[in-house]
Q: What sequence folds into this?
């Protein structure tokens, strides 16, 4: 039976993907950073749930060793863990930018580094990297998150070339707006890490925190992502990249056909 390790399963896409795949008879090893969320997962019937903070290399090793001890193989690794740090670039202190990268980029990279030797030894595997439409285009007030997703794009595009002929597939997911706690978390990080009162964007932040900013069109449920992950698992030769939501398709096409100036005008309206 095919197995998969998923990072970041406390809520949203990670949790819903774990549920979806479990119903499809995939052996799921969901992980979460906090032990309370691991207990939540076990309460939902995921007996193989484990604690994993992707910023901790020793925990990554422990999870890999535990799954190998039980299964003798790891078929798929889904790097899903991540969060959004909101705020204008000039308002994001460098140490806060580093925190964004610690989870979204460096944690993802360490997981990828550690799973590749396992997959090389067994002669196959799939590594799914959760990017975003914001790895293709940038939106106002999301500079730290944009940068982290652009970094994932660069790492994975390079990795794909380096894995050529290995039977290990590195796959990017470019998700658009998905129902989750992502916005709630982003507003929390905005309050905690940005000096809103002394920012030139104070009024803009106030609208976002009060829920008065523009709603993003084409929102979809997390099951849309889960279905694509299942499709990748079943595919002998998965595509290198999957667009998820109409917003990703539209913005991906628009970026290729219009000038940067025109794109900026459009993105300012969306932001």
A:
């Amino acid at each position: 039976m095919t197995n998969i390790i998923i990072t970041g399963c406390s809520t949203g896409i990670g949790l819903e993907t774990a549920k979806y795949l479990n119903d499809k008879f995939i052996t799921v090893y969901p992980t979460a950073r906090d032990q309370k969320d691991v207990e939540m997962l076990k309460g939902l019937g995921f007996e193989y749930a484990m604690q994993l903070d992707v910023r901790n290399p020793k925990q990554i090793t422990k999870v890999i060793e535990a799954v190998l001890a039980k299964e003798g193989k790891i078929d798929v690794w889904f790097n899903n863990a991540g969060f959004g740090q909101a705020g204008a670039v000039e308002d994001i202190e460098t140490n806060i930018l580093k925190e964004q990268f610690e989870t979204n980029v460096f944690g993802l990279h360490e997981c990828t580094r550690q799973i590749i030797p396992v997959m090389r030894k067994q002669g196959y595997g799939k590594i799914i990297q959760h990017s975003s439409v914001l790895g293709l285009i940038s939106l106002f007030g999301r500079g730290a998150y944009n940068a982290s997703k652009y970094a994932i794009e660069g790492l994975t595009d390079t990795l794909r070339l380096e894995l050529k002929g290995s039977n290990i597939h590195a796959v990017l997911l470019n998700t658009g707006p998905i129902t989750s706690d992502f916005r709630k978390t982003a507003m929390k990080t905005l309050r905690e890490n940005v000096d809103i009162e002394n920012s030139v964007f104070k009024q803009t932040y106030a609208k976002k925190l009060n829920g008065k900013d523009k709603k993003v069109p084409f929102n979809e449920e997390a099951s849309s992502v889960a279905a694509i992950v299942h499709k990748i698992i079943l595919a002998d030769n998965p595509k290198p990249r999957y667009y998820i939501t109409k917003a990703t398709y539209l913005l991906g096409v628009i970026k290729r056909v219009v000038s940067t100036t025109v794109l900026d005008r459009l993105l300012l309206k969306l932001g």
